[in-house]
Amino acid sequence: MSLLETRGITVRFGGNTAVDDVSIGVDEGRITGLIGPNGAGKTTLFNTVTGLQKPASGRVLLDGADITRLAPARRAHLGMARTFQRLELFLSLSVRDNVRVAGDILRANTRHRVDVDKETDRVLSRTGLGDIAHLEMSDVPTGRARVVEVARALMTSPRVLLLDEPASGQTEQETEDFAGLLAGLAAEGLAICLVEHDLPLVMKLCSTIHVLDYGAVIASGTPKEIQESPEVIAAYIGTEEVTA
Ligand SMILES: Nc1ncnc2c1ncn2[C@@H]1O[C@H](COP(=O)(O)OP(=O)(O)OP(=O)(O)O)[C@@H](O)[C@H]1O
């Protein structure tokens, strides 16, 4: 059983089926990729998993428990954290304070007493943000801002981390550092689900990849299986290369 599972999730907007009967699992200690052309339903699936979007049918399970009807904050308290495709940071606050604001969720998630300042410093150092911790967010370039979002998510001490295009806007070097960070977090036991258009990065990091097209899973497998899948190649023709 995967730590996080969707079972037959379907989401409709009017007559448009944005997510079509999707069943996927996200395992502890692994990075699971979710890829697909623009509009395939990746963000809508994330929104359903985190509670921002109600599904027409299907269930979301965390550690075997049905959480389909829980509010987003309850899911955060159960150990689910995410980042957003469009950065959701406080521009007038420092990097440190952007991370520290998640301390309330951390307090709720941790049974024993927790020193939020100490944990903020630990997370900043773990994510390589120590050198820019004092900067106002508006002075931080997009590539590093993506890492700040991840740091804030980590601050809640999550079991599952959902990342929506976290490498977008990063330089090549930033993406390389970021890949090292994600691999390290997974090695420590975190369950990570990665939505990303940078296919070489997905191929490098993920143990399993699910491909969405028009809301439905058209292929699931290892990076090698995905790169060789005729369905995937057909879905990507004219849009992106599937080779790493
Ligand atoms: N709030 C909404 N109301 C109506 N339609 C929506 C809404 N959100 C998404 N959609 C539609 O649902 C489909 C899936 O969109 P979604 O953003 O989940 O795709 P995506 O795979 O995340 O795309 P991208 O890679 O561009 O981020 C699209 O057809 C989109 O237009």
Tell me the major beta sheet.
6 strands, mixed
Q: Give the helix proportion (percent range).
A: 25-40%
Q: Can you tell me the CATH topology of the largest domain? A: Rossmann fold
Q: Write the element-wise H/E pattern from the N-terminal end onward.
A: EEEHEEHEHHHHEHEHEEHH
Explained architecture:
Keywords: ATP-binding, Nucleotide-binding, Transport. Pfam families: ABC_tran (PF00005), BCA_ABC_TP_C (PF12399). InterPro entries: AAA+_ATPase, ABC_AA/LPS_Transport, ABC_transporter-like_ATP-bd, BCA_ABC_TP_C, P-loop_NTPase. This is ABC transporter ATP-binding protein. This protein has 244 residues and is α/β, with parallel strands linked by helices. Helix content is 36%, strand content 24%. It has two domains: 164 residues, P-loop containing nucleotide triphosphate hydrolases (Rossmann fold, 3-Layer(aba) Sandwich), CATH 3.40.50; 73 residues, no CATH class. Helix 4 packs across helix 5. The chain is globular, with a radius of gyration of 18 Å. The site of adenosine-5'-triphosphate has 12 residues, from strand 2 and helix 1.
What key attributes describe this structure?
alpha/beta; binds adenosine-5'-triphosphate; 10 strands; Rossmann fold; four-stranded antiparallel sheet; 244 residues
